[in-house]
Amino acid sequence: MIKIAMTKGRIEKNMEKMLLGMGYDISPIVNKDRKLLVDLGEDFQIVFVKSVDVVNLVNSGAVDIGIVGSDTIFENPSEKYSQLVDLESGKCYFALCGFPSYMDLPKSAVKRIATKYPNITKKFFEKKQEEIEIVKLQGSVELGPIIGISDAIVDIVETGETLRANGLMVIEPVGAVSTRLIGNNDRIREKEEEIGKFIEQIQEYKQQIKVKCEAPQNR
Ligand code: PRP
């Protein structure tokens, strides 16, 4: 049995589709209600947690593999786990966002940047050779410039709706994000066959989806 840590919310919904497409009966997940740990047949045991805890649980070896956004992976790198598959879902991107007036700030100004991703943000501004102060917010980061505690934000943009609704804009893209399968290095060795088989099934499913999307339409 493979133990999986799954990111709750949008990623979970996308993964339901993937598992269904791979032929699994996903009713234990769909009907889990408030259960945190669910058996999916005899093959998988899945825990549903927040993204950072997916990485924490994989890191510690409490679970074998995890399904999480690359944003969380980039922010919390570790030598104890490896990326196994880019699931190519949950695609969005990191961006530096703010009000248009942000662009009037001189390069030499120390900018206050609100974010849930301090490591990614620091690296981005180091490259630009600009000085910043991190304003750490855990959610609704867009509030930073709106209430004036930051000059801009570094955050995930998916549809761009949140930015538009708040009069903010993308100042500069920072990097792409997608959902990834990660595995604890020790557990990958211990469960090589089982995990390898699961990865093969995922690759086959990805191939099927690609063929479906690329198939010419009959008129
Ligand atoms: C994420 C992200 C943005 C929003 C972007 O937040 O932090 O706020 O989604 O999506 P959009 O471009 O489609 O509007 P999430 O909903 O995960 O909640 P949070 O703000 O509490 O982190």
Which architecture of the largest domain would the CATH scheme give at its second level? 3-Layer(aba) Sandwich
In round numbers, the mean pLDDT is: 95
Reported by name, the CATH topology of the largest domain is D-Maltodextrin-Binding Protein, domain 2
CATH homologous superfamily descriptor of the largest domain: Periplasmic binding protein-like II
CATH class division of the largest domain = Alpha Beta
As laid out across the biggest beta sheet, the strand order is 2-3-1-4-11-5
Cofactors and ligands present? 1-O-pyrophosphono-5-O-phosphono-alpha-D-ribofuranose
Attribute tags:
alpha/beta, single chain, 9 helices, six-stranded mixed β-sheet, D-Maltodextrin-Binding Protein, domain 2, 219 residues, binds 1-O-pyrophosphono-5-O-phosphono-alpha-D-ribofuranose, five-stranded mixed β-sheet
Q: Could you describe the 3D structure shown?
A:
The chain has 219 residues and is an alpha/beta fold. The chain has two domains: 2-90 and 178-214, D-Maltodextrin-Binding Protein, domain 2 (3-Layer(aba) Sandwich), CATH 3.40.190.10; 92-176, Periplasmic binding protein-like II (D-Maltodextrin-Binding Protein, domain 2), CATH 3.40.190.10. Helix content is 37%, strand content 30%. The protein contains nine helices and eleven strands. The protein has helices spanning 10-21, 27-30, 51-60, 70-75, 118-128, 143-147, 161-165, 185-190, 192-214; strands at residues 2-7, 37-40, 44-49, 65-69, 81-86, 92-98, 111-115, 132-136, 152-157, 169-177, 179-184. The strands form two sheets. A six-stranded mixed sheet has the order 2-3-1-4-11-5, sandwiched between helices. Strands 8-7-9-6-10 form a five-stranded mixed sheet. The longest helix is centred in the last third of the chain and has 23 residues, at 192-214. The protein is elongated. The model has no long low-confidence stretch (mean pLDDT 95). 1-O-pyrophosphono-5-O-phosphono-alpha-D-ribofuranose binds at residues 139-142, 155-162. The site of 1-O-pyrophosphono-5-O-phosphono-alpha-D-ribofuranose (PRP) has 12 residues, from strand 9 and helix 7.
